[in-house]
Amino acid sequence: MDAKTHWETVYRNKAPDAVSWYSPHLETSLALIERAAGNKSASIIDVGGGESTLVDDLLARGYENITVLDVSQVAIEVTKKRLGLAADQVDWIARDITQAELKRSSYDVWHDRAVFHFLGAIEQRVAYVRQVATAVRPGGYVIVSTFGPEGPTKCSGLEVIRYDAESLHAQFGMRFRLVESSKELHRTPFGTTQQFLYCYCKVE
Fold first, then answer.
1. Structure confidence at residue 20 (pLDDT)
2. Radius of gyration, alpha carbons of the chain
3. How far apart are CA 90 and CA 64, in angstroms?
């Protein structure tokens, strides 16, 4: 089963708040985006945004240039329906991030919570990093969150790769200067906890 088929099935069969990564508000992500964006007209892409509420909160805070990319069209349609007329303010892309065609130097902020750790093949990770290097302008910021060293080894039936700050940053290379990293314990809707790692980088 390819990635698109897998995630379409997940989103078709589970409510938005019935997946382990769900959170009513992604406070850590929001705080980092606000630091990185500089102003409300900054161009922000949320990779793997799916049914996340991050786009709702960014719109509520007045951000004007938001793109949400997800491999699942089902997830995107759920979020668009939830947003109502506000969905028209967002650029939606239903593609696998390793294969999408993104414009060069078009984003000030790249945000990804819980996509990169699903990329098990080195070819996928290389393609992902190439996308970031192409799409984020020099001086822009990259926020990537994966499961940390003590996080789960599987999620939604798929194997994941756990990272610490050094190993995650090594995937991206020296062009991406690591500004800071942090760990967060995410409480799932099922009452368990998952360790997430956040890396906040600047594109040189």
1. 87
2. 16
3. 8
Whole domain around residue 116: which residue ranges? 3-203
Amino acid at 155: C
Nearest to 46 by CA among 54, 38, 36: 54
Asked if the model's pLDDT at residue 179 lies above 80, the reply is yes
pLDDT digits (tens, 9 = 90+) for 29-62: 999 999 999 999 999 999 999 999 999 999 999 9
What is the Cα–Cα distance from 35 to 30, expressed in whole angstroms? Answer: 9
Distance of CA 29 to the CA centre of its chain: 9
CATH number at residue 24: 3.40.50.150
Q: Does the structure show a pLDDT above 90 at 22? A: no
Whether the predicted model's global pTM rises above the 0.85 cut: yes
Tokens at 161, concatenated: 């790769």
Total domain count, the chain: 1
Q: Long-range contact list for 30-33, CB < 8 A, 24+ apart?
A: 30/54, 30/57, 30/58, 30/61, 32/111, 32/143, 32/198, 32/200, 33/58, 33/109, 33/111, 33/143
